[in-house]
Amino acid sequence: MNWEDGKVFPSGVTFHKIGISQWDIEKDENGWKMRSLKTLLKELGHSGRIIDILKVDTDAPMGGGFEDMLMQEMLDTDLHQCVRQFVLEIHIPGPIAEPKWLNRCRRVYRQMSHLSNLGYKTFNMTDNVRYLQNIHHNPSLTAENGVRPYLIYSHRAALYEISQVNVKVANSCPVS
Predict the structure, then answer these.
(1) I need a labelling partner for 145 at 20 to 30 A (CA). Which of 18, 159, 164, 167 fits?
(2) What gap in Å lies between CA 37 and CA 19, rounded to an integer?
(3) How far apart are CA 144 and CA 22, in angstroms?
(4) Residue 156 backbone phi and psi in degrees, to 5
């Protein structure tokens, strides 16, 4: 994105050139300031406030995202209590036969289960194969014929967009 930090759109939305990360970094290799979710909320003046919707699409080098790190931060810091709706893209990279990807898949499953036990209920889940359709120049490619059969032994990835509502959201955010 080539937008300047602080750009205000006609709708009143302000663009901040800040990414969510596991660490607080002043400038990554792409020139973005990176912040943990808790630091980001504090710096933008949102600490202690309920977040109506948190939409996350985390892309990381080497095939996966880092949504597992973000979910773990939400669980560890109790920020999960402060989010009404959580929409994220889960990256399941292959080959699942490799221990690092299998372990990551298991970690994401445990975190999603933990969030479910804390009141997060999935109301929509869709496959996202647009990236594969673009890479292979094949608009008819689907998760069934282009991804899932190859996840065990190939370097393809499955992406799922998951929308959840927190039925146990706090009346006020206890995290500051």
Answers:
(1) 164
(2) 9
(3) 32
(4) -85, 165
